Amino acid sequence: MRLVPGFQLRLIGNEYLAVPSGAAASRFNGLMMLNETGAFLLRSMQEETDRETLLRRLAEEYEAPEEQLRADLEAFLSQMREAGLLEEEQP
Fold first, then answer.
1. Rounded to an integer, what distance in angstroms lies between the CA atom of residue 63 and that of residue 28?
2. Is residue 71's pLDDT more than 60?
């Protein structure tokens, strides 16, 4: 899985903004406001990856219980999927 290519991550003040261009702009109209964890995941998903790799990266970056990290990851992936921004291989 990976995010649709074309997002530029910008830090403006204390806010992270994901600005779409190209293919991403054709699927998503607007800007995404992200917290630090969302920005970390967005950067991590610029290339092909999987849930377990993302979970491991989160655990290396943040001190939090695995259950919380997994729940946060699933919520992020769900939002990206609903927005049409997640590319996943079909089995």
1. 32
2. yes
Tokens of 43: 């950067």
Residue 25 in 3-state DSSP?
helix
- Please answer whether residues 32 and 51 qualify as being in contact, where contact means their C-beta atoms are separated by less than 8 angstroms: no
DSSP track, 26-84: HH--S-EEE-HHHHHHHHHTSS---HHHHHHHHHHH--S-HHHHHHHHHHHHHHHHHTT
Domain spans, the chain: 2-83
Nearest to 70 by CA among 62, 79, 58: 58
Residue 32 has phi, psi (to 5 degrees) of -110, 125
For the chain, the average pLDDT equals 90
Using CA atoms, how far apart are residues 32 and 17, in angstroms rounded to an integer? 6
Vertex 85: Cα angle to 80 and 86 (nearest 5): 75
pTM: 0.84
